[in-house]
Structures are given as structure tokens and as C-alpha cells.
Amino acid sequence: MAKAQDFTGVMKDMMGSFPVDTKAMEDAFKTTATMNEKLSGVALEAAEKSTEISAKWTKDTLSKLADMSKAKAEPADYAKSITDFASAQAEVAAENMAAFAEIAKKVQMDTVELMMAAGKDLSEDATAAVKKATDELTANAKKATAAAK
Question: Is pTM beyond 0.85 here?
């Protein structure tokens, strides 16, 4: 009578030698952490520049309001003062909105650049991990097959 093959032992050996590549996981984590750090840097830089524009705009507006609120010799001077203020504010608003748009454009460009670089890094990490796992699985399958014979 032929001896029955113990497939439980073979399966246990094969599962025990299943590759778990912790280095690939660590590399992926480091890549993600680095990308998050860079994205945070982009956001913080944009916030800083936006705050500078807003603060300058507020300071200029308050200065012009102080000029506008001064007592005038003639009633017509009040109308002129209000017109001058409104005109200056419209001009400053257009300049500042253009500055905000430039900040947004830079954030968008930097973000796309970072995402593409991170995607390339993650793709390379994943390819390396899959190749390593495939090589190890193939080697372990060959061992299991040889042990079963």
C-alpha cells in the first residue's frame, strides 16, 4: 500500500515561507510621510503669503479710511474723498486678487509636481516589492514541489 502524502506539512511550510516584505512597507510609509511633509510645506507657504497680502491690504485700507475721515473745508471735498477711496480700493482689490490667484496657481503647480513625483516613487516601490515577492514565492513553490516528490 502506497504511503499517503502529508499535504498539511507541505502547506504549512509553504505558508510559513510566504514572503512578508516589511522593508517595502517601510519604504512606502517613508515615501508617503515625505510627500505629506512637502504638501504641508506648500500649504503653509501659501497661507503665509496670503496672510501677508491680507495684512498689507488691511493696513492700506485703514490708512486710506483715516485720510477719508479727516474733516474737509468744503462739502464737495467729502464726495471727492469718497470717490477717490472707492477708486483706489477697486484698483487695490484687482491687484490683490491677482496676487491671490498667483499663489493659488503656484500651489496647484507644486501639488501636481509633488503628486507626480510621489506616484513615480510609489510605483517604483510597488514594482520592486512585487518582483521580490514573486521571486520568493517562485523559489518557495519550487522547494514545496521538490519536498512533495
Answer: no
